[in-house]
Amino acid sequence: MESQDWVYSDIVKDHFLNPRNFLMGDESNFKYDAVGLVGNPICGDQMKMYIKVDKKTDTIKDIRWKTYGCASAIASTSALSEIAKGKTLDDALKITAKDIDDYLGTLPKHKFHCSILGHDALKDAIEKYRTVEEKR
Ligand code: FES
């Protein structure tokens, strides 16, 4: 492995040290419409993603997340939350791990799988939201 593979970009460090949309404290502090929960089979880390949806426009009005994940997962999910906010649910589902990687100016290659954790939690939250809405 090259030594460069261990280097985090400044933007990754910023999102790790100052995570955007992180849910501080109890989840009752955020009025959400759906929550997604996933585990990463590679490392066992977990991610919870909370979304608030504007029902008229079907867009993500607000978003929060919590994790037991690593620094890369924290930075990736911070970036994902910024990218996803304001998007329609369909467009949010189209966000890729590469979009997150591009936003962050590249994660170390061996940490790329960490960016999938937040993304999968967002997908789970959207699926749960739609399941509940279909039953109404
Ligand atoms: S090592 Fe588990 S999410 Fe990064």
What does this structure look like?
With 136 residues, the protein is of the alpha+beta class. The protein is built from 5 helices and 3 strands. The protein has a single domain, classed as Sufe protein. Chain: A (Alpha-Beta Complex). 40% of the residues lie in helices and 18% in strands. A 3-stranded antiparallel β-sheet has the order 1-2-3. The mean pLDDT is 91. Bound molecules: FE2/S2 (inorganic) cluster. FE2/S2 (inorganic) cluster (FES) is lined by residues 40, 43, 45, 69-70, 72-73, 114, 117.
Low-confidence stretches: none
- Strands ordered across the widest β-sheet: 1-2-3
CATH class: Alpha Beta
Q: Let me know the number of strands.
A: 3
Q: Average pLDDT across residues?
A: 91
Shape: globular
State the gist of this model:
The protein has 136 residues and is an alpha+beta fold.
Provide key terms for this protein:
136 residues; alpha+beta; Sufe protein. Chain: A; three-stranded antiparallel beta sheet; 5 helices; 3 strands; binds FE2/S2 (inorganic) cluster
